[in-house]
Amino acid sequence: MSLYTAHINVMPLTELLDPQGKAVNDSLHKLGFQAIQGIRIGKHITLQIEAASAEEAKQVAEDACKKLLYNAVMEQYEIVIS
Amino acid sequence: MSLYTAHINVMPLTELLDPQGKAVNDSLHKLGFQAIQGIRIGKHITLQIEAASAEEAKQVAEDACKKLLYNAVMEQYEIVIS
Question: The complex's ipTM?
């Protein structure tokens, strides 16, 4: 068994409004960052998984996402194992 | 000028407790995910930047982090431009 690190990004679905991102976008513009647009804000989760292989670790991370870490109605996730 | 995408991770400093991560850690254990440990939860921010080069885009993203997106007392950030 080895210890793998999973990096999980949970982001609002692209079809949905992201009020937090919109608010930060407006704030950045007020601060003079006119070159910035299209901000979206989600969660970045890192965790360690004890598993026999990277594939098994990814499967555990997927299960954890589906059972707790993301809301399928509003969010999508991506997992990178290292 | 091109449009670059910045992926920014804002995470709690490793020396600090992460109560949200701790709570999720405990919840995952209750759900049977004993192989998971060391959860830390931060923010994942994506944004578009109009800039002449990737270096300039990264500089703009750094400035935005320092002025608004992260709290130096409690958080660290990393930026990837694509």
Answer: 0.93
What pTM was estimated for this model as a whole? 0.93
**Which CATH code is given to the segment(s) B2-81?**
3.30.1280.10
Nearest to B31 among A27, A28, A67 (CB): A67
Q: Per the CB < 8 Å rule, is B68 touching A40?
A: no
Q: In B, what residues contact A, Cβ < 8 A?
A: 9-11, 21, 24-25, 27-28, 31, 33, 35-51, 60, 63-64, 67-69
Please choose, from the candidates B5, B1, B8, the residue with its C-alpha nearest in 3D space to the C-alpha of residue B51.
Answer: B1
**Cβ contacts of B65 within 8 Å, gap of 6 or more:** B8, B10, B77, B79
CB-CB neighbors (< 8 A) of A24 in chain B: 45, 68-69
**For each of chain B's 82 residues, which pLDDT tens digit applies?**
899 999 999 999 999 999 999 999 999 999 999 999 999 999 999 999 999 999 999 999 999 999 999 999 999 999 999 9
Count, in order, helices (H) and strands (E) of chain B: 2, 3
Measured in angstroms, the CA of A73 and the nearest CA of chain B are apart by 19
Q: What are the extents of the domains in chain B?
A: 2-81
